[in-house]
Amino acid sequence: MSDNDIDRMADRTVLITGATDGLGRELAVRLGAAGARLILHGRNPDRAAAVAAEVTAVSGRAPRIILADLSRLAEVDRLADEIIAGTSRLDVLVNNAGTGGRPDGKRDLSADGNELLWAVNHLAPYRLTRRLLPLLRASAPARVVNVASAGQQEINLDDPTPEHDYDVYTAYCRAKLAMIMATIEYADELDGTGVTVNALHPATLMATTMVRESGITPISTVAEGAAATLRLICDPDLSRTTGRYFNGARQTHPHAQASDPKARRRLLEISDTAVGLVVS
How far apart are CA 116 and CA 16, in angstroms? Predict the structure, then answer.
């Protein structure tokens, strides 16, 4: 991607979830400076106000802020409803919001009764994307970018979020693999519509709040992760690339389970049941 490619985002509408810290915040500032119309999701009102002020300072245009707790499916729906009601087009959806789980590593449930990492890292972006697909189709060419992880572990599709022998890292890796598997299925479904869907591991252990709170020493910068993500957002050479997984800027293969069509379809059935949606 050339330095000028981000300038193509002027006046294009971009929704970034988890935009108040780390990678999401860096993307918001850089896209705002390029003239994009931003819809920024966050959970903390103070952080949201801070990133809004930062974007306004570099762009002269205030972003739209929508607060929502994505661990709650009703909040995911409200976020989607507000976007649909107040936005005539959506050029890019960046599903960036995520969680690393409780600091003590114990299993936790969302308000809907779903394992928390599965709820935030997979079910929330899955449902949000499904709700916004009509708007994305109407805005085509459009892109969906799913921020996944190189950490991926096979999902037991008979029991994707087991209660016994719980390990927070394993739960995180399964949820991120689920996001990648859904990415591939969405790409197949949207073939020929002008909407592309790709996933990436932006960079390893970026210097984000999630990494620092885990006690792990960061080894990559947020700027590195933003550069890889921006490539999927605006590189014209990737305008027809869809259903792919990238490790940074390099297209590569995810966990082998993602290549199994039966496993992907079973995952979608499980996800549709969990979020109360049916694939038409």
Answer: 21
Question: Positive or negative, the Cα torsion across 245, 109, 129, 96?
Answer: negative
151-168 CB burial, b ≥16 within 10 A, e <16: bbbebebeebbeeeeeeb
Q: What is the pLDDT of residues 159-200, one digit of tens each?
A: 999 999 999 999 999 999 999 999 999 999 999 999 999 999
Give strand pairing partners of 146: 95, 199
Query: Does pTM top 0.90 for this prediction?
Result: yes
Active site residues: 172
Task: Enter the tokens of residue 145.
Answer: 């970018």
DSSP conformational letter for 239: T
Instruction: Please say whether the beta carbons of 46 and 21 come within 8 A.
Output: no
Separation of alpha carbons 261 and 252, rounded Å = 18
